[in-house]
Amino acid sequence: MELILSYTAATAAAVSKLATILNAHRVRQAPATVFVAGRIAEIEREALLPAIDAAGDLADVNTATYRHIRVLRKVPWSMPQPSDRLIAEEFTRGAQAVREALGRPCSGVRPAEGAGAGFRGCAANLEAMRAAGLRWSSAYVRSTYGDSAPGDLCGPFRYAADGYPELLELPAHGWPDGAVKARAGTGARQETPAARSSASSAGPARSRIRPHWWRPRKRSLQCTAPRSRPPGMRVCRTAAWRSTPIPRSGPRTRMRASSTC
Q1: Is the pTM here over 0.70, yes or no?
Q2: Which CATH number applies to 5-173?
Q3: Which stretches of 31-190 are assigned E, i.e. beta strand?
Q4: Predicted confidence (pLDDT) at residue 105 exceeds the cutoff of 70
């Protein structure tokens, strides 16, 4: 299986880093696949063009949709789900921006986040690809929310079962894997017998590097003791919730949401 390094430029801060990466590929004559958000291609055109032109045919430039926002209907369902109109707009405007601003044909797309099954069962996404003139996608990526982790490094496949046999999927090895390995202390480390024995004697490795989706657990309630309070009462409050006073003895009162929620 042939592996190609790919990069996504979805923010203005990533443009300078992408230029450094493309220069390294040019020096080593190694191909690279680049996904640029259409909005960034328009705004940062003057900064992107020299690096892309210098890389020449080594850089395969494609789109990361227009704004690199959520275009897949997937978990968690509590998050806003994209409409068919939004999906079509992101694919069409993203491809058009790369073609016009950067002068590249743009035949592929990588959506934000990715999904464990790619675009399988996503007729709106596949139809948007076809309408935008895109021939392949890299949507089969391990996801932040665990719908595809753990998963295997899958090979290319076509969406013939969904009625789009001309569209190709080129899976990618997702970025959460590197974050989890870094947190476990196993990322970018060569496993040798000496290193393995020293690691086992030292105990489990710990790392301060945490995945970007890691958040510290917050305390849901904080009990405060105001100076002026009724005798035998305590008040529990948070910034987003308001609760009624809770007696020290007897059944607790159910919390109610405040008008600021």
Answers
A1: no
A2: 3.20.20.370
A3: 32-36, 59-63, 108-109, 136-137, 157-159, 164-169
A4: yes
